[in-house]
Amino acid sequence: MFNPEFFSMDDYSTEDLFSETLVICIVSTTGSGLEPRAMTMLWKKLLLSDLPPDLLDNLCFTVFGLGNSAYERFCWLAKRLTRRFESLGAVRLCECAEGDEQHILGFVSPKFVL
Q1: Does 13 fall in a domain?
Q2: What is the reported pTM?
Q3: Binning pLDDT at 50, 70 and 90, where does residue 96 land?
């Protein structure tokens, strides 16, 4: 049984991420592909070059990106976060889904890779 908890990324401790087993991230991308202000601290810590490649090897994750396909770097942060989690040993549960405010349905459904 799951007991989900919901956090804004600026209220979530990076150290807690290292002990998680399942994480679903919902992230928006600002105009030029940058992270939202609420994610800046967590993102900077995840980008440290001295993190071991097996740091997140107990983590399963998926990412849902929010963006606007009118911008060149549509859902760029969601793609970067997915790659970073994988580079630290995490296992992706399903493809990154991308919500496009320009799309008639508003989202693209993820495809499971299990």
Answers
A1: no
A2: 0.85
A3: confident
